[in-house]
Amino acid sequence: MRENINWNESKARIEYSASQEQFGTMKRIPPDEPSTTARDVAAAPNTLEGYALLHQFFRLRRSQWNALTESRRVEIIEKASLVFSAMERREDGQSAIFSQLGHKGDLIAIHFRRTFDELGAAQLEVGRLALSEFLEPTTSYLSVVEIGLYEATVKLHAELAEKGLKPHSPEWIKAVKDDLEDQRHKLGVRLWPQVPDRRYVCFYPMNKRRSGSDNWYSLPIAERQLLMRDHGMIGRRYAGQVTQVISGSIGFDDWEWGVDLFADDPLVFKKLVYEMRFDESSARYAEFGPFYFGIRLAPTDLGRVLGTPDDR
User: Fold this and answer.
1) H or E segment and range at residue 136
2) Mean of the pLDDT values across residues 54-61?
3) Rounded to an integer, what distance in angstroms lies between the CA atom of residue 44 and that of residue 47?
4) Dist. CA 14–CA 3, nearest whole Å
5) Which alpha helices (H) appear in the chain, and where do they start and end?
6) CB-CB neighbours of 297 under 10 Å
């Protein structure tokens, strides 16, 4: 018969004892007894965060733009070129602009900054341009460079459990903090990258599926770690051909991650994404948003993209 529990009177808690493979029976944990069950250890992997990222997508209001005199268009483009050139030359968090292909828009601006406040300043700087009067925002994406540490997290938790440390105890928390600092030192270049100097960019947002039996977030962390390892092996085969920047956006935007792929051969995007579709972590657990494609644009070439048929 189901037991009735008055949580206001009883401070004991009901939890699952578990193994890596599956959850087992329920047991009552006295309020003052530390728990060592898998439920007490965060299912989320440890992560490292770097640059804050803002993607801006614009469509040129061409009829209004074309109505300007040529001299006014030249003046506007020259001022915008100076601003984008200065943003591109930044040493600690660059910006880059891209000519967008297809009906989705005409211009993409990608900003890497140390803080979200700096991203706000970059957005305001673009918004103050006279050119912005003729740029219609079609969408945007806010995120932060993220490195997921699945393998390191599983390994660390096993080591701490073997030492007899209780999850979330002061000793456990310190060990996790020290490990993250060590990982941050090793992976710093990936956390604070320059905008890759490649001709083409492909950007898309994505989620991990939470549907029925294909619920990524209900899988044990050890199983997710194996799936992500296999997924990563595909990407490694394209080393040197494509530069990937993964950014986390949970709490910042409508999708969970943003993916930027930079390459000098655009066919690499098709081959890489297609091959990854057959990987289990994508085939069963991934959901993809719209794809955006751009060609790197030197700020001094803005006129070539934004000019009218008469002056290009």
Assistant:
1) strand 135-148
2) 98
3) 9
4) 11
5) 62-66, 70-88, 116-127, 150-162, 170-186, 188-191, 221-236, 267-277, 280-283, 302-306
6) 20
Q: Please, what is the average pLDDT of the chain?
A: 88
Active-site entry in 51, 141, 200, 204 = 204
Q: Please, how many CA atoms are within 13 Å of residue 236, restricted to the half-sphere of its CB?
A: 6
By percentage, how much of the chain surpasses pLDDT 70? 85
At residue 22, the 3 state secondary structure works out as coil
Catalytic, 204? Answer yes
Answer for the pair 35, 12: CB distance below 8 angstroms, yes or no: no
Domains of the chain by residue range: 47-312
CA angle 129, 73, 119 (to 5 degrees): 20
Output the six-digit token pair for 45: 């992997």
Coil, strand or helix at 157? helix
pTM: 0.85
In angstroms, what CA-CA distances link 110 with 51, 58, 62, 69, 196? 12, 12, 22, 29, 11
Fold category of 47-312 in CATH: Alpha-Beta Plaits (3.30.70)
Cβ(180)–Cβ(82) under 8 Å? no
Place of tokens 């740029």: 135
Residue with tokens 């941050």: 184
Residue whose tokens read 């310190």: 174
Count CB atoms within 10 A of the CB of residue 270. Answer: 10
